[in-house]
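Contributing new records

If you add data, match the layout below exactly. Sequence lines come first and carry their own label; structure lines follow with theirs. Keep one chain per record. Anything else will be rejected by the validation script.
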Amino acid sequence: MIMKQTFADLAKTYDETLLNNVIPFWENHSVDWEQGGYFSCLDQQGNVYDTDKFIWLQNRQVWTFSWLYNQLEAKTQWLAIAKNGADFLAKFGRDRTGNWYFALNRQGKPLVEPYNIFSDCFAAMAFSQYAKATQEESAQEIALQAYNNVLRRQDNPKGKYSKTYPGTRTLKSLAVPMILANLSLEMDWLLQSDRLAAILESTLTEIMQDFLLAPQGLLLENVAPDGSMVDCFEGRLINPGHSIEAMWFVMDIAQKLDKPEFIDQAIAIILQTLDFGWDQEYGGIYYFLDIQGHPPQQLEWDQKLWWVHLETLVALSKGYALTGNQQCWEWYQTVHDYTWSKFSDRDYGEWFGYLNRQGEVLLNLKGGKWKGCFHVPRALYLCRQQFSDLAK
């Protein structure tokens, strides 16, 4: 149990798992040194089972190795891995108008059109970190072009690829402002301070006003353009992982803008989301829920996913480090014990991604179309930093 571990012990656990377990898995199995980029479809042992390359996972891996190079240690190998992805993406990742594809084949030929802005979001993050590591002007230009794409398309993120009939039931998604919040913080060194502040202020207001449903204190995943709730499947949807991840982004923005009141509000939402989204019978955080208790339309609603639990550990450790809130610490212990006992693969390294409701491994893959080299290493590093600071 975690109660026996000191903050220094926890920092060491996160550090050793990151550097001796998770990162070596991706270094050894995912890098396509022949064609460029990365293999993300890896089985439990790291064998490649599909060679298609999904742009947002490619960019996330460029970001991860650039970020570790910038934040942790300037290792030549890490920068070489980042460059292998960045060069591949700079050559093949965009269409002629500068929008980022969703998927390519191994050689870099397009498979899936640029049907939403999330590929652009992670391209901006990736090339911003890569530019910081290399000081390459071309990487800065790619980062800013992708970022401006996101700003330009944020009100219509899927554009012509949207399946929704226009005008009947217009909804906006929490995913857009939350990713813009994190992305803008990532891009701060490339943006003018007044422009950055304005974007962060706007994003903070939208998340904390339009998507927050009072008095429940929960964030809706989709709302009408004016922030009102819409009584339908999408309008009643709660995605606990998104809500909690968004709140640690909000805490970072609140620190940046010196608005401590938003830190307290973010923590209150995290705690309320955990009360609502925790599986009292089997443990773990549900993937999707309906705020009125109706059956969700997502058939995978009761699965337990890696990123949901890891982002919760980041949010709770950050909330506790910033405020000393005892409920954050109590919940941290509960989520830590579940997450580390269920998702970490002690036999072959890295972490499982998908459990059934009972907490049993549902898919033993380590990477696929949606899971790559991002959430696990990012969470391990951020928690390492929180507990290292607390230990001091």
